[in-house]
Amino acid sequence: MDFKIGDSLEENGSEKQNNRKIPLIIVIVLSIVIGLSVFFISNLIFGDKKKDNTPSVSTNIDLEDENVKILYDYVTYGVRNKRYEKFIKEQSVKLEDFNNYEKFYYALQFAQAEDFASTGKVNENNQKIYNISTSKIRTYMQRFFGPEVTYSTNSKITYPFSFRINNLNVGTLTYAVESEGFSTVFTSFEDNIVSNNIIEPFYTELSKATKKSDGSIELIEKVLYTELVNKGGNVYDVNIYKDYQHTMLLETKTNLTEEQLKENPIKFEDYGEKVTTINYLFKLSSTNYYFYSSTINN
Predict the structure, then answer these.
(1) Which of 7, 10, 51, 58 is deepest in the core (most CB within 10 A)?
(2) The whole model's pTM is what?
(3) What is the DSSP string of 99-112?
(4) Bridge partner residues of 256 (DSSP)
């Protein structure tokens, strides 16, 4: 008979206090968890994002390096030995800035005579029909423009190639589903363009090549734009500009003869840091460098 009412009440009161403590602990723990979660999420969204302060390391490459020469040839290419002016006149160029013909223009610089297989057929004009495969065209497109390039096969492409087939070099390509390629007929021959200009409309010079830490390669090209003004007879003025549109004049050379102009060619060193530069960026896809962008810096 040791049982006491008071003992029983005391025990029951302790249990109630413990039962109150348990929800309180849960509330505290949940508050801490929620608070920490809000802190970390807010910090990710609004907090100071620490940037990688590791400097991007660029290594200079010799201008005689084989890759540098190849990539510079890519962007200075032009049919019939006359440079196409896209990069010379457009302030900024990326893949989306090329029209369909321009994509074929740059891609077909890699084409070779052996890419065109004879079909044994002739067209209505008794001209032999050759075929270049869609896979070969795709390879050349990706070589210049990278893996993301898209292009249309709906239009005919007439192109002066750097080689001859049957002594002809101008071919017209038409997509042919049945041959899984482009039917090509060579129709004429066009020789390389030989300039007879006293002064060229622009002058360029590769000045620097660097390899970046991400593996990409950047080429820097100097460029000067000119305008020749005939003052009468064999007397000329030459205006030298920073831009293709001829709005930023650097210098005017006056009252010069053709002979004087040839004896004293335009030199980049005469203009120092005033010359315009074009930056070409080439990115790496697998083992292939492809054109990514160009920017004119006036």
Answers:
(1) 58
(2) 0.81
(3) -HHHHHHHHGGG--
(4) 236
